[in-house]
Amino acid sequence: MLLQQFRPISQLSDYIDSLLVQEDFNSINYANRNPVKVLPSTLAVIGIQYGNRMKVIENNKENLLGTSGLTGLQTTFKEYVSTGRVGTIIVRFKPGGLKAFTSYPIHDFRDANLDLSLIFPKHLVSEMEERLSEATNMHGRIALVQAFLVSVMEQESEERLILQVAKQIQAHNGDVSIKQLAEDFFVGKRTLERKFNDIIGITPKKFANIVRFQHTIHLRKSGRDYLDIVQACNFTDHAHFVHDFKAFTGCSPEQFFRHEVQPELAQTFGENNRLSDSKDTMYQ
Question: How far is the C-alpha of 3 from the C-alpha of 98, rounded, in Å?
Answer without folding.
Answer: 24
